[in-house]
Design brief:
The complex is a heterodimer of chains A (363) and B (324). Chain A has 363 residues and is mostly helical. Chain A has a domain of 252 residues: ABC transporter involved in vitamin B12 uptake, BtuC, CATH 1.10.3470. Chain A has 14 helices and no strands. Chain B is mainly α and 324 residues long. Chain B has a single domain, classed as ABC transporter involved in vitamin B12 uptake, BtuC. Chain B is globular and about 60 Å long. The relative contact order of chain B is 0.19. Classes of the chains: A mainly alpha (363), B mainly alpha (324). Chains A and B meet through α6, α11 and α14 of A and α4, α10 and α13 of B.
């Protein structure tokens, strides 16, 4: 029994140790010093309040997307289209920021509402393609991500190009009234957005645990065929998951343009949606873990922003460390089940056979 | 035939070759019941590794071997995770997509936009002298000829050999194959690694032939997803997969021709969205039953023939684990 406890502890630490060692070896392979990289990354995240504000500014959209994806994962759906839903949210918010004239608080409220609706619309497309028309959500999502990106570039280089001419880099900066206010210059973080994350967290936690909607969602995700036989409207249930996730992703996209950048840029989602999928692969359907894991990933991301300036290293190192952690956690989950002989549920999606013909089992 | 048209067709064949090789590789993997979702990242990492290896060693053959090894290792990780460690193929594949793409960007950061070795055209004797057809099909670099052999070889293997029967069986009814004495999981390892090596070869075909060199963001970004969609469009049949790849490359050539023409006023950037709209539409056609309904209006003999050609059923056990 004692051995088992040590084994358990070892299996928790193993993925982190392996990921750090492999990352260090990769840093040595490109001719840098891992200790130095670690120091600069620490500085990048915790040097002063400005750098920590950078971490929080990654965390807010990442946490929003992760919360949204917890919902689609509960329903057993792979919403890989979350990147595109962020982008459409960003576009909708940018429209409000550029063309609507209202007092600042009302305008910001409208922008966020528009972004949520935009994200929902884009997510509904993925959902309808999957649930009604049998196009697997991974492919529908990937294609709609790319289309949303093309739309962004079209707007920036065409109708919404800045008056001094289109460089295809961004729109003109939005008026200050349209932007989310920061707490202070030293700690430039939007209190409103943090409030939205916490509100979303509380609402989702309650809804997933205690509401009829949440239970139907989980039943659909665990076994759609049985759920349908039990009289649960599985199609509607799964579609509602896409809509909720789209709303969260849309608001995350709005945050990127209304706070992080202050204008619309190509790929303003910055890969945060994909990162959120990694978060949810780790935490499954647990909302609090999603927030905390998103924070750890944001620290890695915030730290990496200094690598380019300080060490001329590509910041994709952050993605490597994050990817390695998730991969090794998945692999050690399997190892644990083998070694300890328990079939503890792995926090992966219980996805239906892939890809599903004719929209079954929801058809 | 117009000479410029012949040249366009010839370049379509050349540009489609990585998609053909990756599509056939994925077909081989999925026919065995395993989904290798990592294609978009695998292509990038094997392209980068192949290019750098060829540059450093001075040998294209070394580059190709390294590219294939990278693709095979990624596929092997998916197989081990699924078969030994009971993890979801799609989840592991997705993580590897992102991880491989980031690895390619990080490890290749000092090798972007520098000239390096590339495969040269090798006109096939006699065949390349056939008018029109010779220029279109037989005046290319060697990987294009390899892709022809691969297409017919895979088709023959899958549908006309005993080994191919077992290959399809482990993707359709693994338990039945197991009952007949087939070592399902050993074969799954084998076809997963072969398919992955072909994906790696496709990556090397980008960086050593079609779009020589390495860049950030990589030139083939998105093509991995397109290759995965082409396998579905192709109904897991080598000939249709190849048809899909050529059609796709053809439409891309058409789009870039439209971009060059002064008469057509479509905002250029919007055309970049065309492949993705196309991807949704084709998947919609094969999976929504729209084709079935369309076919039911046709006369009966045509119906049977075209249904056989157009049906698109995935291997029944695709994406699922097999425990003996």
């Amino acid at each position: 029994m004692k051995n088992k406890i040590w084994l358990q502890a070892g299996l928790v630490l193993l993925p982190i140790i392996i990921s750090l060692v492999v990352t260090a070896l990769l840093i040595i392979a490109v001719g840098s010093n891992p200790i130095e990289v670690f120091e600069k990354s620490w500085e990048g995240a915790f040097r002063n309040s400005t750098s920590f504000a950078g971490v929080v500014n990654f965390w807010i959209p990442l946490a929003l997307c992760s919360l949204g994806l917890v919902v689609t994962f509960s329903a057993g759906m792979w919403n890989i289209g979350v990147e595109g839903q962020m982008l459409i949210g960003a576009i909708f918010a940018s429209w409000g920021a550029q063309f609507v004239i209202l007092p600042s608080p009302l305008l910001i409220g409208l922008e966020i509402l528009l972004a949520a609706l935009g994200g929902m619309a884009w997510a509904a497309l993925v959902g309808v393609l999957r649930l009604r028309l049998g196009v697997h959500e991974i492919f529908g999502g990937v294609a709609l991500n790319a289309i949303a990106n093309v739309l962004t570039i079209y707007l920036i280089s065409g109708p919404w190009q800045p008056p001094e001419g289109g460089s295809a880099q961004s729109t003109a900066p939005f008026p200050t009234d349209a932007l989310l206010p920061g707490i202070s210059n030293e700690f430039s973080v939007s209190a409103l957005a943090i409030g939205l994350v916490i509100l979303g967290f509380i609402a989702l936690t309650i809804a997933l645990r205690g509401s009829r909607w949440g239970l139907q969602l989980k039943a659909t995700g665990k076994n759609a065929v049985s759920a349908l036989l039990l009289g649960i409207p599985t199609q509607r249930s799964a579609l509602s998951a896409f809509l909720v996730c789209g709303a969260f992703a849309g608001i995350a996209g709005a945050y990127r343009v209304l706070f992080t950048y202050g204008s619309l840029r190509p790929l303003s989602s910055g890969g945060i949606g994909f990162l959120a999928l990694l978060v949810v692969l780790l935490v499954g359907t647990r909302t609090l873990s999603a927030l905390l894991t998103a924070l750890i990933f944001s620290i890695i991301l915030g730290g990496s922003t200094r690598l380019k300036i300080a060490l001329q290293l590509d910041p994709s190192l952050a993605g490597i460390l994050q990817g390695l952690i998730v991969l090794t956690v998945l692999l050690t989950n399997g190892l644990r089940a083998r070694l300890l002989g328990n079939s503890a549920p792995t926090p992966t999606v219980d996805s239906p056979p892939f890809p599903t013909p004719e929209g079954a089992p929801h058809g | 035939m117009d000479e410029s048209l012949v040249n366009i067709l010839s370049s379509i064949i050349a540009n489609a070759t990585p998609l053909v090789i990756a599509g056939i590789g994925e077909t081989i993997t999925e026919r065995a019941g395993v989904v290798n979702l990592s294609l978009d990242g695998s292509l990038a990492l094997s392209a980068m590794a192949g290019f750098v290896a060829a540059l450093v060693s001075g040998s294209i053959v070394v580059g190709i071997i390294i590219g294939m090894t990278v693709g095979a290792v990624i596929a092997l990780i998916i197989a081990v995770a699924n078969i030994e460690l009971r993890q979801d193929q799609v989840a592991v594949g997705f993580v590897l997509t992102l991880l491989a793409a980031d690895l390619a960007q990080f490890l290749g950061q000092d090798y972007t936009r520098i000239p390096g070795p590339k495969l040269l055209n090798l006109p096939l004797p006699i065949l390349s002298d056939i008018p029109i057809i010779g220029t279109i099909f037989f005046n290319h670099e060697p990987l294009v000829y390899f892709s022809y052999a691969l297409i017919f070889g895979t088709w023959y293997w899958l549908f006309h050999t005993r080994g191919g029967l077992a290959h399809r069986a482990i993707g359709e009814r693994p338990s039945a194959a197991f009952a007949r004495g087939t070592d399902v999981n050993r074969l799954r390892y084998l076809y997963c690694v072969i398919g992955g090596a072909l994906v790696g070869l496709a990556g090397a075909a980008y960086s050593l032939a079609v779009k020589p060199g390495w860049a950030t963001p990589p030139v083939m970004r998105g093509d991995g997803w397109i290759a995965l969609a082409i396998v579905i469009f192709g109904g897991w049949h080598p000939f249709r997969v190849v048809l899909g790849a050529y059609l796709f490359a053809g439409l891309r050539a058409l789009a870039s021709a439209i971009q060059r023409s002064p008469d057509i006023q479509i905002p250029l950037v919007l055309l970049n969205g065309l492949p993705w709209v196309l991807m949704i539409v084709t998947l919609l056609l094969v999976s929504s039953g729209a084709i079935e309904r369309l076919l039911s209006v046709l006369p009966r003999p045509v119906q049977r023939w075209s249904r056989n050609f157009l049906r698109s059923d995935p291997p029944s056990a695709l994406g699922t684990r097999f425990d003996p």
